[in-house]
Amino acid sequence: MEPVHIIGAGLAGSEAAWQITRRGVPVVLHEMRPAVETFAHKSGDFAEMVCSNSFRSDDDVMNAVGQLHWEMRAAGGLIMEMAGRHRLPAGGALAVDREAFSAAVTQMLRAEPLVTIAPGEITQLPDTGNWIVATGPLTSDALAHAIRGVTGTEALAFFDAIAPIVHAETIDMSVAWEQSRYDKGETLAEQKAYINCPMTKDEYEGFIDALLAAEKTEFHEGETAGYFDGCLPIEVMAERGRETLRHGPMKPVGLTNAHKPQDKPYAVVQLRRDNALGTLYNIVGFQTKMKYGAQTQVFRMIPGLQNASFARLGGIHRNSFLNSPTLLDDRMRLRPRPNLRFAGQVTGVEGYVESAAMGLLAGRMAAAQALRRDLPPPPFTTAMGALVNHITGGAEAKTFQPMNVNFGLFPPLPEMRSGRRGRKDRYPAYTQRAKDDFSAWLATQ
Ligand SMILES: Cc1cc2nc3c(=O)[nH]c(=O)nc-3n(C[C@H](O)[C@H](O)[C@H](O)COP(=O)(O)OP(=O)(O)OC[C@H]3O[C@@H](n4cnc5c(N)ncnc54)[C@H](O)[C@@H]3O)c2cc1C
């Protein structure tokens, strides 16, 4: 039988390899480390955790990432199995002994007779065969160049510039209002495409002080090559002058406060819809290197966001990722070259768990193809399905930035109470529905 080739033995590639061999299909696993290094990896082992040693919350009732753990375990995932074996005490989080964990993943794959390890960097995209590209946020330059040759230069980003994303139901609409600047747009929906949060002069000055004082993270050494001026962090804009933001992303022009039409806001923060469901909004132009704790404090100073709950916080990192909503089909194949599947962080998901989950799915889909079957994605009521649906279609392609799994990606349950208070009933209902639907999806295979 023709093997499936996987480029990259990170979190995604390792999980994909495992899933494929469980279905009796051979794998060739291409890995460039340790011969070719990245600025973040430290070893030649597979599935190296480059920064924190945590797979985040393991709560599969009240937390979306915990639900994703549950689904990966139900699907016999290697990453979750090895994480469980090398677990460290960390409250409700799944933290691991990182070295023991990646040594164990490496050993499992090296010991698997259906896996052939092929050391070395892949620099071209193959025209034929069944391939999975799982080269991660630090995809080597030569391969990134080859990918851009097929997708176009705009379609593979080298940095993410993530503006914070807010759960729509937690925005205080008695303070904020819907309006596009100058009411632009043909339809009413377009004229109301943005949510606006007004600031007085005092609120603006207080906000700038907090931005300047907030703790920031630094770029890693070697990370900034290719970083450009077009996605400056808001705190850097504020450092360039206290008025810079008021003339940039916070300019108050073309907007009338629907609650107080006589009051001219001194500055306005705009939020734009981030998904087709309308459950998530991003804060326009607010990419930042502030530390996560500081972000929550500073952004809750914005009138209307005082109780905001964040689906993800902002960041700027070296990160190669595709514009997947335009490039990948729902089987995770590259539309212009369907012999290539993509998996992991390079598809525009964010995080160890999400990357490994996309590896699991791509692996099962590639194995199905090798066995002349077709595997549809899990329903988007599941954590895995919600995530793959987001990257391959649900997300806004124009503003696409990497995404963590979160309940905002799940289709709402109309009968459940919305808002923060409804969570204690809503979240268990989401995760129960996800478990039922994921089990049914597994049972079809
Ligand atoms: C600096 C940094 C810190 C991060 N911190 C965290 C964190 O704390 N928590 C979190 O959840 N997520 C974090 N992430 C995000 C992300 O979850 C991880 O990067 C994760 O490892 C992604 O999994 P992956 O399998 O897609 O990529 P990787 O795990 O990076 O695996 C990709 C593999 O492909 C190999 N490769 C690349 N190009 C080629 C090529 N041309 N030929 C052959 N092999 C190749 C690489 O050597 C690597 O082994 C971080 C990312 C970065 C860059």
TrEMBL record:
It catalyses: uridine(54) in tRNA + (6R)-5,10-methylene-5,6,7,8-tetrahydrofolate + NADPH + H(+) = 5-methyluridine(54) in tRNA + (6S)-5,6,7,8-tetrahydrofolate + NADP(+); uridine(54) in tRNA + (6R)-5,10-methylene-5,6,7,8-tetrahydrofolate + NADH + H(+) = 5-methyluridine(54) in tRNA + (6S)-5,6,7,8-tetrahydrofolate + NAD(+). It comes from the Bacteria. Its cofactor is FAD. InterPro entries: FAD/NAD-bd_sf, MnmG-rel, MnmG-rel_CS, MnmG_N, TrmFO. SUPFAM superfamilies: FAD/NAD(P)-binding domain (SSF51905). Its EC number is 2.1.1.74. The keyword Phosphoprotein does not apply. Its main location: cytoplasm. GO terms for cellular component: cytosol. NCBIfam families: gid_trmFO, PRK05335.1. This is Methylenetetrahydrofolate--tRNA-(uracil-5-)-methyltransferase TrmFO. It comes from Paracoccus tibetensis. The gene is trmFO.
